[in-house]
TrEMBL record:
Domain (HTH luxR-type): residue spans on this chain: 143-213
Lineage top rank: taxon: Bacteria
4-aspartylphosphate PTM positions: 52
Residues annotated as domain Response regulatory: 2-123
Keyword check for Transcription regulation: yes
Source organism: Virgisporangium ochraceum
UniProt-listed InterPro entries: CheY-like_superfamily (IPR011006), Sig_transdc_resp-reg_C-effctor (IPR016032), Sig_transdc_resp-reg_receiver (IPR001789), Tscrpt_reg_LuxR_C (IPR000792), WalR-like (IPR039420), WH-like_DNA-bd_sf (IPR036388)
One example GO MF annotation: DNA binding
Pfam families reported for this sequence: GerE, Response_reg
Protein name: DNA-binding response regulator
GO biological process, one term: phosphorelay signal transduction system
């Protein structure tokens, strides 16, 4: 089985390469970023890719996006995302690629048995879909109404933000301190998993989420 490994940590990359080689895999390339991953796959034509999710230069979702592009070009290419995190943005798209076959998403900290891990890679390479239970749980939570995560007070604050009230006005209406309003708004932005940007833009995104969730 020809394998390409993509992992930005040199120690993890070399360690994973050595491990797979001991179990009979042919590691044809081991690279440290998404661009190098795409180039290595085009050059070596492996049967399996094992990729980290967050890699240079942005350390966000480069590995996932590269995997999706590779699967679009070759739906039969088996891919296992091996990460410390559940990256929500593109995970569902990756799992749906190639008609959901030959795909895996594992969390590094939850891999506790080497033989089981290697067996999982072989199963994915043979066409199976293997997704860590924690990944499934987080994806299910993600697809629930995000407003369910807010407390009743946070909903009240968000409703007033949606109506265009300033922080000072919200404080007067709800009999809160200014610091209290700021704390509630910060909690709302965090619970809604809004992308980090300037606070003004995040408030707009929070309002849009609120409006979409209203009956």
């Amino acid at each position: 089985m020809r394998v390409v490994i993509a992992e930005d940590s040199v120690l993890l990359r070399e360690g994973l390469g050595g491990l797979l080689a001991r179990f009979g895999f042919d590691v044809v390339a081991a690279v440290g970023d998404a661009d190098a991953l795409v180039a290595a796959v085009e050059r070596t034509r492996p049967g399996l890719v094992v990729t980290d999710v967050r890699m240079p230069p942005g350390f966000t979702d480069e590995g996932l996006r590269a995997a999706i592009a590779l699967r679009a070009a070759d739906p039969d290419l088996a891919v296992v995302a091996l990460s410390q995190y559940v990256q929500h943005g593109y995970t569902a798209e990756l799992l749906a690629s190639g008609q959901g076959r030959a795909i895996g998403y594992l969390l590094k900290d939850r891999v506790v048995d080497v033989a089981e891990f290697v067996g999982t890679l072989r199963r994915v390479a043979a066409g199976a879909t293997v997704v860590d239970a924690e990944v499934v749980r987080q994806l299910m939570l993600r697809h629930r109404d995000p407003l369910e995560r807010l407390s009743s007070r946070e909903r009240e604050v968000l409703a007033l933000v949606a109506e265009g009230h300033s922080n000072a006005a919200i404080a007067r209406i709800l009999s809160l301190t200014g610091a209290g309003v700021v704390k509630h708004i910060g909690s709302v932005l965090s619970k809604l998993d809004l992308p980090v940007s300037d606070d003004t833009n995040r408030r707009v995104l929070a309002v849009l989420t609120y409006l979409r969730g209203r009956p």
